[in-house]
Design goal:
alpha/beta; seven-stranded mixed β-sheet; about 40% helix; Rossmann fold; about 350 residues; binds 5-S-methyl-1-O-phosphono-5-thio-D-ribulose; Four Helix Bundle (Hemerythrin (Met), subunit A); 2 domains
């Protein structure tokens, strides 16, 4: 599997595949300043927890290039990173990657060194993310039997990472091993990451994929058509609770009711060791327009409110296993999460 061109460092700027336009157009956004990048993250031109984190890490390079070279350099740099941190609150990768970059910046004495060191650090993140994807793919595929039909939610593929994916890395590897019969992708209301992005990714890889409305997933499980559910995550708490795209939690409830294994695939960069449990995770609320309009058409009468959380939290109790680059955590809990990260 060749990594998707989700994000590419050019010479002095970051080029992002504009995911808002997929699948009808494959166009790119060139981020040469922080505001352009912040807008791309907020508006989901680049999205998915690992991709947001790595994009922000390259953003730190842009911040160092574009900050006031004088005495305000350090303050200017950090305020640009604050802007990036303010874009989306749930995916912890954003904060983890920016914290690493702030540390790298503190270790570099002069501006030229800072640019060089931050760029190296961002490139290391790309390399590590690709390697983590390959490893998670192998661990996850080991759990699937031949002829599996699997269901996924949102997009946890190459588009959501440095290019290979988390949940979809498992599916790509299992497909290569001849284990996958078919993939079902939830359409993922309201922004349709499953319909627009996951089906685009899987079909270009030649993997049979059917899209279903989110609300049809439980019926499909009851029919006995699904062998495993495989999703990504935006933040995993110490007790194993996992935040992911809204609609993941009901899927996990339905999987439990129908005794279907429910796997969460996420690299350690998505683990939050400062958050004890899922109820502490901040859930992003998105704009009314995402529900009030569809394809430019008005759906809601004036004055009608919305509740539009971008994510929900699946309790560890409903997760059969978390698959990370270090291995598989069956029935995840504090002890297993801390020990896989070497923190116990
Ligand atoms: O709002 P999005 O599209 O950024 O949400 C993305 C998801 O919820 C993904 O499932 C998650 O980030 C894992 S990506 C490997």
């Amino acid at each position: 599997m060749v990594p998707l061109p989700t994000l590419q460092w050019m010479d002095g700027f970051l080029r992002l595949l504009d995911q808002r336009k997929l699948p009808s157009e494959e166009t790119y956004i060139d981020c040469k300043d922080i505001d352009t990048l912040a807008d791309a993250i907020k508006s989901l031109a680049v999205r998915g927890a690992p991709a947001i984190g790595i994009a922000a890490a390259f953003g730190a390079v842009i911040a160092a290039i574009t900050s006031d070279p004088g005495r305000a350099f350090e303050a200017d740099f950090h305020s640009k990173l604050d802007i990036l941190e303010g874009t989306r609150p749930t995916a912890v990768n954003l904060f983890n990657c920016l914290e690493i970059q702030r540390d790298v910046f503190r270790m570099s004495s002069v501006r030229e060194n800072a640019v060089r060191d931050l760029l190296k650090s961002a490139r290391d993140m790309v390399r590590d993310d690709l390697e983590a994807s390959r490893r998670m793919g192998r661990f996850g595929a080991d759990l699937l039997k031949k002829g599996s039909t699997v269901l996924t939610h949102c997009n946890a593929g190459g588009l959501a990472t440095a290019g290979l994916g988390t949940a979809l890395a498992v599916i790509y590897e299992a497909w290569d091993r001849g284990l996958i019969k078919k993939v079902y992708a939830d359409e993922t209301r309201p922004l349709l990451q499953g319909a627009r992005l996951t089906s685009w990714e899987l079909s270009r890889a030649g993997i049979p994929v059917d899209v279903l409305p989110d609300s049809a997933a439980a019926s499909l499980l009851r029919k006995g058509e699904i062998d495993a559910i495989i999703v990504g995550s935006d933040r995993i708490a110490v007790n194993g609770d996992a935040a992911n795209k809204i609609g993941t939690y009901p899927l996990a409830l339905a999987a439990s009711a129908h005794c279907v294994p429910f796997y969460v695939v996420a690299p350690l960069s998505t683990f939050d060791f400062s958050t004890e449990c899922g109820s502490e995770i901040e859930i992003e609320q998105r704009d009314r327009n995402e529900l009030a309009t569809l394809g430019g058409r008005k759906l809601l009468p004036e004055g009608v409110g919305v509740w539009n959380p971008a994510f929900d939290v699946t309790p560890a109790l409903l997760i059969t296993a978390i698959i990370c680059e270090k291995g598989v955590l069956f029935s995840p809990d504090d002890e297993k999460v801390l020990s896989v990260a070497g923190k116990s």
